[in-house]
Amino acid sequence: MTVIDVEPRTSNAAAMIMNEAKIHVRNFDFYYGPSKVLHAIDLDVPDRQVTALIGPSGCGKSTFLRSINRMNDIIPEAKAAGTIRIDGRDVYAPGMDVVELRRRVGMVFQKSNPFPKSIFDNIAYGLRLGGMRGRRQLAEIVEKSLRRAALWEEVKDRLDTSALALSGGQQQRLCIARALAVDPEILLMDEPASALDPIATAKIEELIYELKDNYTIVIVTHNMQQAARVSDRTAFFMLGKLVEVGPTNTIFMTPREKMTEDYVTGRFG
Amino acid sequence: MQRHFDRDIEEIKDLLLRMGAMVEDSINQSIRALLERDTVMAEDVIAHDDDIDHMEVLIDQKTIELIAKMQPTATDLRFVATIMKITPELERIADLAQDVCERVIELNREAQLKPVVQLPQLAQSAQRMVREALDSFVRGDAELARRVIAEDDTADQLTEDSFRALLTYMMENPRNISSAIRLTFIGKYFERMADGATNICEMVVYLVEGKMIKHTHAPGGR
Amino acid sequence: MNRRKLLSRVMETLCLVAVLLALLPLAFILFYVIREGAGALNLDFFTQIPKPVGEPGGGMANAIVGTLILIGLAALFAVPVGVICGVHLSEYPTRRFSSLVRFAADVMNGVPSIVIGIFAYGLVVLPVKRFSAIAGGFALGLLMLPVVIRTTEELLRLVPAGLREGALALGATRSRAVFTVILPAALPGIITGVLVALARVAGETAPLLFTAFNNRFWSTSLMQPIASLTVQVFTYAISPYDDWHRQAWAGAFLLVMIILSLSITARFAVRRLERMNRP
After folding, report:
1. Which chains touch A (3 or more CB pairs under 8 A)?
2. How far is residue C78's CA from residue C72's CA, in Å, rounded to a whole number?
3. Handedness of CA C262, C267, C271, C276 (dihedral sign)
4. Is C181 on the interface with A (CB under 8 A)?
5. Partner B, chain A 60-99, Cβ-Cβ below 8 Å
6. Å between A58 CA and nearest CA of chain C
7. Chain A residues with beta carbon closer than 8 angstroms to that of B5
8. What ipTM does this complex have?
9. Model-wide pTM > 0.95
10. Tens of pLDDT along C76-115?
11. Residue A75 to residues A32, A78, A80, A123, C177: CA-CA distances in angstroms?
């Protein structure tokens, strides 16, 4: 993973203006080997709101999402250019501790991926990574996280049973609880409900709505209606470019760009 | 399951009921202005009509936003459709009350006519129908809605009767013509208020039962 | 239409015949061994060491213990090295080095066991001029090593990528992710592989001839030659004494039982561990 270009440090005043957004993306490019998959993305993600990334398959929205917590680092031919700042700090700066970054920025994946361990051990995993040991302390945070993810009541009596025995929707909520346990500020969700049935999906959407009081959430979804239901701001990606971004109501009621209108009305994609 | 949209739906419902209360006030005041020949009250009604118009715009905006965000189905969808049809009816009814008041102000400048008993009856009838229409919406009472729809015939009859009475006044004395015509207009306005209440009730039946009964009344209705 | 059905039937029958042909020798072996060996099993066999030449009676107690010690040593050598090697191949691959290692493992897998035995002789026995259990364990370990390496690598590959991503996304470093999530997830399969390799190695004779040699007396010392079931069976089988022949059959029977029980244990252990992996 190589970084081609890093913006030089700016003055304090300029930094303060830029810092109104929790995540501030400027001129971000991304390459898989020789092919450029993201072009000059400029995006501000406000604090404690849900921002949805929509667009047809292959438009780069997942790649962009994974660039925020540098999950793309594990791909050997990947290169990033431009800046992504979280609270003013450049995520791709040479001194950035990726492990620390990933604790502040949690991620939930399309296919839920609970570890083959007990429910308790799943949630405690991130905490143990950070060095926490005491059983009581861990149990407290495990309970808090499960409550936050609206899963506590369903599993409180079987914390030591295998996480894989849960239903699909429960597993996904477990993964959300697991991500919340380390108390991130930002939660990235990559199509979190696409593998779930409608009832489980509705539960996840309500959960997201509740979580935004405390977390900044960026969600990638190929389901436009879900983006409309759940988000405050929506960004429309197409062929690696950011076509339009704005309040969700605007994007779905009075979009500026014709491409946005065509996508949102289902005329293509 | 609790949905955060339920809060939005409740909010729109509240706004509609507030608008309904404002419209009922207007009707009430217009009737009193008519019976007591009170110009000040009439002017008051006319001034407040703007507030009611603003409510209509606000409710429209929130309802469209709800459609965009929620993609409502089933009862939720019928609720949204009902709201979008009731608000303009309410606004028209408020406009009619305003029209009544404009005629009242003109009437008060002329000599008072002999009372036409059917006119106040018609006014009370229209007022009651509007109130009950809104009640039926709040309570989801399709039975009540249907009863109100049936009352429209009575309102029509009262209008006819008061018109005939006013005709005789006009024929008795040409100096009555001006006031009588204004009173005829007022009768027409109340009759159209009753029609508006009927339209609202038809939407309530649609909301509650899913059946669209517009334009399917027995002949002799409207 | 009928010809197709006929052809299908013929093929089915041929397959059945082939299966029977393959299973028949196995059935015969089991039957023979059981018939000849079960009769000679008695308490003495399990508790006594061999009697001096010519005297009847005695048992193979020391050989049984010896085999167990030898496969224990083999596991001690092969499992840590093999698992870590497999981890390296799967998680930190470099194109040239990794394919070299894999190739080497495959070649080693094919090396005749007697050659491994001679190698161990040259490496461990000659310098100290003595046969020992350690040398035997080392030779058997070398035999096990390629299997453990390849099994570990394959099973780590099979762990769903989502688990690795999930661990990384929570702030785990590469190696912590491997050792706290991925390896535990692959463990059932790795254990099966180890147990199966152990079963194979328990039945080896040739490498032990040059390393652990044999021992007619009771010995559990690691630095001394040690008895083993396989070598003992070999020794008794080529002897002229009937009594020893019978004991050889008993030893063979016991060997088959040990291997069978190792395989069955493998299956059960895996099933219990897999309950953590799949509901």
Report:
1. B, C
2. 10
3. positive
4. yes
5. none
6. 20
7. 229
8. 0.85
9. no
10. 999 999 999 999 898 888 888 888 989 999 999 899 989 9
11. 8, 6, 12, 27, 16
